[in-house]
Amino acid sequence: MDEALVDGSGRLFPSAGTMEREPQFTTDAPAFNDAPAFHDFWPGGRAPTVLQVVPTLITGGAERGCIDMALALAEAGGTPLVASQGGAMVRELDRAGIRHITLPLASKNPLTIRKNARKLAAIIAERKVDIVHARSRAPAWSAWMACRDTGARFMTTFHAPYNIGSGMKRWYNSVMARGERVIAISDFVRRHILENYETDPANIRTIHRGIDRAVFAPDRVSSARLIQLTQQWHLPADRPVILLPARLTRWKGQTVVIEALEKLGRKDVVCLLVGSDQGRSGYRRELESRIARAGLGNVVVMTDHCSDMAAAYLLSTVVVSASREPEAFGRVIVEAQAMGKPVIVSAIGAYQETVMPGETAWVVPPDDSDALANALREALSLTPDQRDAIGARAQAFVADRYTRERMCADTLGVYAELL
Q1: What does DSSP say about strands 241-245 and 204-206: parallel, antiparallel, or unpaired?
Q2: How do 318-321 and 343-346 pair as beta strands?
Q3: What is the distance between the alpha carbons of residues 180 and 161, in angstroms, rounded to a whole number?
Q4: Please, what is the Cα angle at 302 between 298 and 303, to 5 degrees?
Protein backbone atom coordinates (compact mmCIF):
# COMPACT_ATOMS: atom_id res chain seq x y z
CA MET A 1 0.00 0.00 0.00
CA ASP A 2 1.14 3.52 -0.74
CA GLU A 3 3.25 4.68 2.19
CA ALA A 4 1.74 8.15 1.90
CA LEU A 5 -1.48 6.56 3.15
CA VAL A 6 -0.23 4.11 5.76
CA ASP A 7 2.98 4.59 7.70
CA GLY A 8 4.93 2.03 9.68
CA SER A 9 2.66 2.35 12.70
CA GLY A 10 -0.39 1.48 10.64
CA ARG A 11 -1.76 5.02 10.72
CA LEU A 12 -4.03 5.98 7.84
CA PHE A 13 -2.36 9.36 7.40
CA PRO A 14 1.24 10.49 6.94
CA SER A 15 3.42 11.28 9.90
CA ALA A 16 3.91 14.83 11.09
CA GLY A 17 7.21 14.97 9.20
CA THR A 18 5.46 14.04 5.96
CA MET A 19 2.72 16.54 6.63
CA GLU A 20 5.19 19.42 6.81
CA ARG A 21 6.08 19.15 3.13
CA GLU A 22 4.74 21.98 1.05
CA PRO A 23 3.64 21.24 -2.54
CA GLN A 24 4.88 23.44 -5.35
CA PHE A 25 2.17 24.68 -7.68
CA THR A 26 2.24 26.85 -10.75
CA THR A 27 -0.50 28.22 -12.97
CA ASP A 28 -0.63 30.52 -15.93
CA ALA A 29 -4.43 30.79 -16.12
CA PRO A 30 -5.52 34.43 -16.09
CA ALA A 31 -8.38 35.65 -13.93
CA PHE A 32 -11.66 35.62 -15.82
CA ASN A 33 -12.20 39.28 -15.08
CA ASP A 34 -8.93 40.15 -16.81
CA ALA A 35 -10.54 41.06 -20.12
CA PRO A 36 -7.36 42.20 -21.91
CA ALA A 37 -5.76 38.79 -21.36
CA PHE A 38 -8.79 37.06 -22.86
CA HIS A 39 -8.89 39.23 -25.95
CA ASP A 40 -5.76 37.41 -27.06
CA PHE A 41 -7.86 34.24 -27.35
CA TRP A 42 -9.96 35.45 -30.26
CA PRO A 43 -8.66 34.75 -33.78
CA GLY A 44 -8.48 38.01 -35.70
CA GLY A 45 -9.43 39.87 -32.54
CA ARG A 46 -13.16 39.14 -33.02
CA ALA A 47 -14.87 37.89 -29.89
CA PRO A 48 -17.71 35.41 -30.47
CA THR A 49 -21.40 35.37 -29.77
CA VAL A 50 -22.12 32.24 -27.74
CA LEU A 51 -25.57 30.87 -26.96
CA GLN A 52 -25.67 28.54 -23.94
CA VAL A 53 -28.68 26.25 -23.53
CA VAL A 54 -29.76 24.62 -20.26
CA PRO A 55 -33.11 23.19 -19.13
CA THR A 56 -33.66 25.66 -16.27
CA LEU A 57 -31.79 28.22 -14.19
CA ILE A 58 -33.02 27.19 -10.76
CA THR A 59 -29.95 25.66 -9.09
CA GLY A 60 -27.17 23.15 -9.77
CA GLY A 61 -23.67 22.75 -11.12
CA ALA A 62 -24.53 23.03 -14.82
CA GLU A 63 -26.55 26.15 -14.11
CA ARG A 64 -23.77 27.71 -12.03
CA GLY A 65 -21.26 27.00 -14.78
CA CYS A 66 -23.58 28.55 -17.36
CA ILE A 67 -23.89 31.79 -15.39
CA ASP A 68 -20.16 31.95 -14.70
CA MET A 69 -19.30 31.47 -18.37
CA ALA A 70 -21.82 34.08 -19.53
CA LEU A 71 -20.23 36.62 -17.18
CA ALA A 72 -16.71 35.63 -18.24
CA LEU A 73 -17.50 35.88 -21.95
CA ALA A 74 -19.01 39.33 -21.49
CA GLU A 75 -15.91 40.53 -19.65
CA ALA A 76 -13.74 39.06 -22.39
CA GLY A 77 -15.50 41.16 -25.01
CA GLY A 78 -17.85 38.50 -26.35
CA THR A 79 -21.63 38.44 -26.55
CA PRO A 80 -23.25 35.86 -24.27
CA LEU A 81 -26.81 34.64 -24.70
CA VAL A 82 -28.55 32.08 -22.49
CA ALA A 83 -31.70 30.13 -23.25
CA SER A 84 -33.59 28.15 -20.62
CA GLN A 85 -37.01 27.61 -19.13
CA GLY A 86 -36.13 30.18 -16.47
CA GLY A 87 -35.57 30.22 -12.74
CA ALA A 88 -34.22 32.33 -9.90
CA MET A 89 -30.71 32.48 -11.34
CA VAL A 90 -31.95 34.50 -14.33
CA ARG A 91 -31.68 37.53 -12.04
CA GLU A 92 -27.89 37.22 -12.13
CA LEU A 93 -27.98 37.55 -15.92
CA ASP A 94 -30.39 40.47 -15.71
CA ARG A 95 -28.11 42.33 -13.30
CA ALA A 96 -25.21 41.89 -15.72
CA GLY A 97 -27.26 43.00 -18.73
CA ILE A 98 -27.00 39.56 -20.37
CA ARG A 99 -29.88 38.49 -22.59
CA HIS A 100 -31.92 35.49 -21.40
CA ILE A 101 -34.35 33.82 -23.77
CA THR A 102 -37.16 31.79 -22.24
CA LEU A 103 -37.94 28.53 -24.03
CA PRO A 104 -39.40 25.20 -22.77
CA LEU A 105 -35.97 23.58 -22.87
CA ALA A 106 -36.62 21.29 -19.89
CA SER A 107 -39.14 19.31 -21.91
CA LYS A 108 -38.16 15.87 -23.22
CA ASN A 109 -41.19 15.70 -25.48
CA PRO A 110 -39.89 15.01 -29.03
CA LEU A 111 -42.32 17.51 -30.58
CA THR A 112 -41.24 20.23 -28.14
CA ILE A 113 -37.59 19.43 -28.78
CA ARG A 114 -38.14 19.96 -32.51
CA LYS A 115 -40.05 23.19 -31.94
CA ASN A 116 -37.23 24.40 -29.73
CA ALA A 117 -34.76 23.54 -32.50
CA ARG A 118 -36.62 25.79 -34.94
CA LYS A 119 -36.74 28.62 -32.39
CA LEU A 120 -33.03 28.26 -31.64
CA ALA A 121 -32.22 28.30 -35.36
CA ALA A 122 -34.09 31.59 -35.68
CA ILE A 123 -32.18 33.03 -32.70
CA ILE A 124 -28.86 31.87 -34.20
CA ALA A 125 -29.66 33.62 -37.48
CA GLU A 126 -31.01 36.79 -35.90
CA ARG A 127 -28.23 37.18 -33.32
CA LYS A 128 -25.41 35.92 -35.56
CA VAL A 129 -24.48 33.24 -33.05
CA ASP A 130 -21.09 31.64 -33.63
CA ILE A 131 -21.22 28.82 -31.06
CA VAL A 132 -24.01 27.00 -29.27
CA HIS A 133 -22.91 25.45 -25.98
CA ALA A 134 -25.29 22.79 -24.63
CA ARG A 135 -25.17 21.56 -21.03
CA SER A 136 -27.97 18.98 -20.87
CA ARG A 137 -29.49 16.35 -23.13
CA ALA A 138 -32.94 17.64 -24.11
CA PRO A 139 -31.75 21.17 -24.97
CA ALA A 140 -28.65 19.63 -26.59
CA TRP A 141 -30.81 17.80 -29.12
CA SER A 142 -32.57 21.04 -30.01
CA ALA A 143 -29.23 22.84 -30.24
CA TRP A 144 -27.66 20.08 -32.35
CA MET A 145 -30.50 20.26 -34.89
CA ALA A 146 -30.39 24.06 -34.95
CA CYS A 147 -26.63 24.07 -35.56
CA ARG A 148 -26.99 21.46 -38.30
CA ASP A 149 -29.48 23.71 -40.07
CA THR A 150 -27.62 27.01 -39.58
CA GLY A 151 -23.93 26.10 -39.65
CA ALA A 152 -23.25 27.39 -36.12
CA ARG A 153 -20.63 25.45 -34.18
CA PHE A 154 -21.99 22.96 -31.64
CA MET A 155 -20.29 22.02 -28.40
CA THR A 156 -21.32 20.43 -25.11
CA THR A 157 -20.31 20.11 -21.50
CA PHE A 158 -20.74 16.54 -20.24
CA HIS A 159 -21.71 17.13 -16.60
CA ALA A 160 -22.43 13.56 -15.48
CA PRO A 161 -21.98 9.89 -16.43
CA TYR A 162 -25.57 9.34 -17.52
CA ASN A 163 -27.13 5.93 -16.91
CA ILE A 164 -27.15 3.95 -20.13
CA GLY A 165 -29.51 0.98 -19.70
CA SER A 166 -31.13 0.33 -23.08
CA GLY A 167 -29.83 1.11 -26.53
CA MET A 168 -32.42 3.88 -26.80
CA LYS A 169 -31.11 5.52 -23.64
CA ARG A 170 -27.54 5.34 -24.96
CA TRP A 171 -28.69 7.01 -28.17
CA TYR A 172 -30.51 9.75 -26.24
CA ASN A 173 -27.40 10.40 -24.15
CA SER A 174 -25.13 10.38 -27.20
CA VAL A 175 -25.98 13.94 -28.19
CA MET A 176 -23.73 15.10 -25.36
CA ALA A 177 -20.82 13.37 -27.09
CA ARG A 178 -21.60 14.80 -30.54
CA GLY A 179 -20.12 18.23 -29.99
CA GLU A 180 -17.31 19.49 -32.16
CA ARG A 181 -15.77 20.00 -28.75
CA VAL A 182 -16.91 18.08 -25.67
CA ILE A 183 -15.94 19.39 -22.25
CA ALA A 184 -15.67 16.70 -19.57
CA ILE A 185 -15.86 18.08 -16.04
CA SER A 186 -13.36 15.49 -14.77
CA ASP A 187 -11.03 12.79 -16.04
CA PHE A 188 -13.54 10.28 -14.67
CA VAL A 189 -16.23 11.72 -16.98
CA ARG A 190 -13.77 11.75 -19.88
CA ARG A 191 -13.15 8.03 -19.44
CA HIS A 192 -16.90 7.42 -19.28
CA ILE A 193 -17.39 9.22 -22.60
CA LEU A 194 -14.65 7.29 -24.35
CA GLU A 195 -15.82 3.95 -22.97
CA ASN A 196 -19.47 4.41 -23.94
CA TYR A 197 -19.73 6.70 -26.98
CA GLU A 198 -18.08 7.01 -30.38
CA THR A 199 -16.22 10.24 -29.78
CA ASP A 200 -12.87 11.31 -31.15
CA PRO A 201 -10.58 11.70 -28.10
CA ALA A 202 -9.01 14.73 -29.81
CA ASN A 203 -12.32 16.60 -29.45
CA ILE A 204 -12.59 16.15 -25.66
CA ARG A 205 -11.29 18.78 -23.28
CA THR A 206 -11.17 18.05 -19.55
CA ILE A 207 -12.05 21.24 -17.67
CA HIS A 208 -12.79 20.77 -14.00
CA ARG A 209 -15.53 22.76 -12.37
CA GLY A 210 -14.38 25.79 -10.46
CA ILE A 211 -15.38 27.39 -7.19
CA ASP A 212 -15.59 31.06 -6.27
CA ARG A 213 -12.62 31.87 -4.04
CA ALA A 214 -14.30 35.08 -2.96
CA VAL A 215 -16.98 32.93 -1.30
CA PHE A 216 -14.98 29.94 -0.13
CA ALA A 217 -12.22 31.69 1.76
CA PRO A 218 -11.83 31.45 5.55
CA ASP A 219 -11.08 35.15 5.96
CA ARG A 220 -14.35 36.06 4.22
CA VAL A 221 -16.54 34.37 6.85
CA SER A 222 -17.49 36.70 9.69
CA SER A 223 -17.85 35.72 13.32
CA ALA A 224 -21.51 36.71 13.13
CA ARG A 225 -22.14 34.06 10.45
CA LEU A 226 -20.42 31.39 12.52
CA ILE A 227 -22.41 32.33 15.59
CA GLN A 228 -25.66 32.27 13.63
CA LEU A 229 -25.08 28.70 12.38
CA THR A 230 -23.80 27.54 15.76
CA GLN A 231 -27.00 28.76 17.41
CA GLN A 232 -29.23 27.49 14.61
CA TRP A 233 -27.79 23.97 14.90
CA HIS A 234 -27.32 24.10 18.70
CA LEU A 235 -23.66 23.15 18.42
CA PRO A 236 -21.73 22.78 21.69
CA ALA A 237 -18.51 24.78 21.69
CA ASP A 238 -16.26 21.99 22.96
CA ARG A 239 -17.08 19.12 20.56
CA PRO A 240 -15.40 18.32 17.22
CA VAL A 241 -17.74 18.57 14.21
CA ILE A 242 -17.96 15.96 11.45
CA LEU A 243 -19.75 17.40 8.41
CA LEU A 244 -21.47 15.39 5.67
CA PRO A 245 -22.99 17.87 3.18
CA ALA A 246 -25.25 15.97 0.77
CA ARG A 247 -28.91 15.76 -0.11
CA LEU A 248 -30.66 12.89 1.63
CA THR A 249 -30.50 10.08 -0.88
CA ARG A 250 -29.21 6.57 -0.27
CA TRP A 251 -26.26 6.69 -2.65
CA LYS A 252 -24.77 9.67 -0.79
CA GLY A 253 -23.87 7.29 2.04
CA GLN A 254 -25.55 8.70 5.14
CA THR A 255 -26.17 5.13 6.38
CA VAL A 256 -22.47 4.33 6.00
CA VAL A 257 -21.57 7.35 8.12
CA ILE A 258 -24.01 6.32 10.85
CA GLU A 259 -22.50 2.81 10.92
CA ALA A 260 -19.00 4.29 11.07
CA LEU A 261 -19.96 6.56 13.97
CA GLU A 262 -21.34 3.59 15.87
CA LYS A 263 -18.01 1.78 15.37
CA LEU A 264 -16.05 4.90 16.28
CA GLY A 265 -17.73 4.78 19.67
CA ARG A 266 -17.24 8.43 20.58
CA LYS A 267 -20.00 10.46 22.18
CA ASP A 268 -17.97 13.67 22.39
CA VAL A 269 -18.41 14.57 18.72
CA VAL A 270 -21.19 16.07 16.62
CA CYS A 271 -21.97 14.80 13.13
CA LEU A 272 -23.98 17.13 10.92
CA LEU A 273 -25.96 15.58 8.06
CA VAL A 274 -26.64 18.73 6.05
CA GLY A 275 -29.01 18.45 3.12
CA SER A 276 -32.63 18.42 2.03
CA ASP A 277 -34.54 15.17 1.69
CA GLN A 278 -36.16 16.60 -1.49
CA GLY A 279 -39.35 14.77 -0.64
CA ARG A 280 -37.66 11.50 0.37
CA SER A 281 -39.43 11.43 3.74
CA GLY A 282 -39.20 7.64 3.95
CA TYR A 283 -35.41 7.72 3.76
CA ARG A 284 -35.28 10.48 6.37
CA ARG A 285 -37.36 8.36 8.74
CA GLU A 286 -35.08 5.40 8.10
CA LEU A 287 -32.04 7.49 9.02
CA GLU A 288 -33.72 8.76 12.17
CA SER A 289 -34.51 5.18 13.16
CA ARG A 290 -30.93 4.05 12.54
CA ILE A 291 -29.58 6.94 14.60
CA ALA A 292 -31.86 6.03 17.50
CA ARG A 293 -31.01 2.31 17.36
CA ALA A 294 -27.29 3.11 17.35
CA GLY A 295 -27.65 5.33 20.41
CA LEU A 296 -26.40 8.33 18.44
CA GLY A 297 -29.26 10.70 19.19
CA ASN A 298 -26.87 13.12 20.93
CA VAL A 299 -24.21 12.77 18.22
CA VAL A 300 -25.95 13.02 14.83
CA VAL A 301 -27.83 16.19 13.90
CA MET A 302 -29.90 16.22 10.71
CA THR A 303 -30.39 19.66 9.23
CA ASP A 304 -32.07 20.82 6.05
CA HIS A 305 -30.42 22.70 3.20
CA CYS A 306 -27.79 25.20 4.33
CA SER A 307 -27.50 28.52 2.51
CA ASP A 308 -24.13 29.38 4.07
CA MET A 309 -21.89 26.43 3.32
CA ALA A 310 -18.70 28.46 3.69
CA ALA A 311 -19.55 29.02 7.35
CA ALA A 312 -20.57 25.37 7.73
CA TYR A 313 -17.19 24.19 6.45
CA LEU A 314 -15.37 26.60 8.75
CA LEU A 315 -17.23 25.23 11.78
CA SER A 316 -16.26 21.66 10.93
CA THR A 317 -13.29 19.59 12.07
CA VAL A 318 -13.42 17.19 9.11
CA VAL A 319 -15.66 17.06 6.02
CA VAL A 320 -16.84 13.71 4.69
CA SER A 321 -18.23 12.45 1.40
CA ALA A 322 -19.30 8.82 1.75
CA SER A 323 -20.78 8.41 -1.73
CA ARG A 324 -21.58 4.83 -2.67
CA GLU A 325 -21.70 5.62 -6.39
CA PRO A 326 -19.22 7.65 -8.47
CA GLU A 327 -19.37 11.43 -8.34
CA ALA A 328 -18.81 13.23 -11.64
CA PHE A 329 -16.87 15.93 -9.82
CA GLY A 330 -17.89 16.43 -6.18
CA ARG A 331 -17.92 20.16 -5.60
CA VAL A 332 -18.37 20.03 -1.81
CA ILE A 333 -15.01 18.37 -1.25
CA VAL A 334 -13.25 21.03 -3.32
CA GLU A 335 -15.09 23.74 -1.39
CA ALA A 336 -14.11 22.16 1.93
CA GLN A 337 -10.44 22.03 0.94
CA ALA A 338 -10.62 25.68 -0.15
CA MET A 339 -11.75 26.40 3.40
CA GLY A 340 -8.65 24.61 4.71
CA LYS A 341 -10.39 21.50 6.01
CA PRO A 342 -9.19 17.87 5.93
CA VAL A 343 -11.56 15.62 4.02
CA ILE A 344 -12.51 11.95 3.78
CA VAL A 345 -13.79 10.64 0.44
CA SER A 346 -14.83 7.41 -1.22
CA ALA A 347 -12.34 5.88 -3.64
CA ILE A 348 -14.63 6.12 -6.65
CA GLY A 349 -15.39 8.62 -9.40
CA ALA A 350 -13.73 12.00 -9.62
CA TYR A 351 -12.82 12.17 -5.94
CA GLN A 352 -9.57 10.43 -6.74
CA GLU A 353 -8.53 13.49 -8.76
CA THR A 354 -9.98 16.28 -6.60
CA VAL A 355 -7.96 15.45 -3.47
CA MET A 356 -4.32 14.70 -2.64
CA PRO A 357 -4.50 11.25 -1.01
CA GLY A 358 -2.48 11.20 2.17
CA GLU A 359 -1.81 14.93 1.89
CA THR A 360 -5.21 16.62 2.09
CA ALA A 361 -7.51 13.61 2.34
CA TRP A 362 -8.16 10.10 3.47
CA VAL A 363 -9.46 7.95 0.61
CA VAL A 364 -11.47 4.94 1.75
CA PRO A 365 -13.31 2.15 -0.11
CA PRO A 366 -16.97 2.98 -0.78
CA ASP A 367 -19.58 1.42 1.49
CA ASP A 368 -16.90 0.42 4.02
CA SER A 369 -17.91 1.67 7.47
CA ASP A 370 -14.85 0.10 9.13
CA ALA A 371 -12.44 2.05 6.92
CA LEU A 372 -14.48 5.20 7.37
CA ALA A 373 -14.44 4.80 11.16
CA ASN A 374 -10.65 4.42 11.10
CA ALA A 375 -10.29 7.52 8.94
CA LEU A 376 -12.53 9.51 11.27
CA ARG A 377 -10.47 8.35 14.24
CA GLU A 378 -7.31 9.62 12.55
CA ALA A 379 -8.84 12.92 11.48
CA LEU A 380 -10.11 13.64 14.96
CA SER A 381 -6.71 12.90 16.51
CA LEU A 382 -4.67 15.36 14.44
CA THR A 383 -2.60 17.90 16.31
CA PRO A 384 -3.23 21.60 15.59
CA ASP A 385 0.05 21.80 13.64
CA GLN A 386 -0.91 18.81 11.51
CA ARG A 387 -4.36 20.25 10.87
CA ASP A 388 -2.86 23.60 9.84
CA ALA A 389 -0.42 21.89 7.47
CA ILE A 390 -3.24 19.95 5.81
CA GLY A 391 -5.28 23.12 5.49
CA ALA A 392 -2.46 25.03 3.83
CA ARG A 393 -1.84 22.24 1.33
CA ALA A 394 -5.55 21.87 0.61
CA GLN A 395 -5.99 25.57 -0.09
CA ALA A 396 -2.96 25.69 -2.40
CA PHE A 397 -4.17 22.56 -4.23
CA VAL A 398 -7.60 24.06 -4.90
CA ALA A 399 -6.23 27.48 -5.83
CA ASP A 400 -4.07 25.88 -8.50
CA ARG A 401 -6.65 23.61 -10.10
CA TYR A 402 -10.28 24.21 -9.18
CA THR A 403 -11.09 27.90 -9.36
CA ARG A 404 -13.83 29.62 -11.31
CA GLU A 405 -11.17 31.76 -12.99
CA ARG A 406 -9.33 28.76 -14.37
CA MET A 407 -12.53 27.03 -15.51
CA CYS A 408 -13.64 30.14 -17.36
CA ALA A 409 -10.24 30.75 -18.93
CA ASP A 410 -10.02 27.19 -20.20
CA THR A 411 -13.57 27.25 -21.56
CA LEU A 412 -12.95 30.54 -23.37
CA GLY A 413 -9.97 28.82 -24.93
CA VAL A 414 -12.29 26.11 -26.28
CA TYR A 415 -14.57 28.78 -27.74
CA ALA A 416 -11.52 30.23 -29.50
CA GLU A 417 -10.70 26.82 -30.99
CA LEU A 418 -14.07 26.79 -32.75
CA LEU A 419 -13.80 30.22 -34.38
Answers
A1: unpaired
A2: parallel
A3: 19
A4: 130
